[in-house]
Amino acid sequence: MADEQGRLNPTDQVRQRRAVVARWTLLANRVGYLVLALAVATFIIAFAIGFSSMLATTVVVCLIVSFVLLAPSIVLGYAVKAAEREDLENNL
FRET label pair with 46: which of 7, 22, 28, 76, CA 20 to 30 Å apart? Predict the structure, then answer.
């Protein structure tokens, strides 16, 4: 449905989809930062007691997992916020 200026109003499905994406990005952010903190803690422990191959592998795997989770979730989080802000500015 269009309003009096010919713009399309967002449907409930769009807002629902945005809410789902926002929830998943929030979860990915939390898990990603938690895994990053685990990598830092493991690195500090390994530095204090001596690096072993297991500790080094744990640090690297934690860093990779956190980057894989954080990169898209941060971008998608900003995209959802920008879309919501644009809808509010345009009174949609």
Answer: 28
Reading the block at residue 8, the tokens are 């399309």
Q: Say how many Å lie between the first and final Cα of the chain, rounded.
A: 12
Q: Is 50 helix (H, G, I), strand (E, B) or coil?
A: coil
Burial class (CB in 10 A: 0-12, 13-18, 19+), 16: exposed
Domain of 41 in residue numbering reads as 12-86
Half-sphere exposure of 43 (CA within 13 A, CB side): 11
- Report the distance separating Cα 1 and Cα 19, nearest Å: 21
pLDDT by 10s per residue, the chain, length 92: 445 555 555 566 888 888 899 999 999 999 999 999 999 999 999 999 988 999 999 999 999 999 999 999 999 999 999 988 888 888 76
Domain assignment of residue 92, yes or no:
no
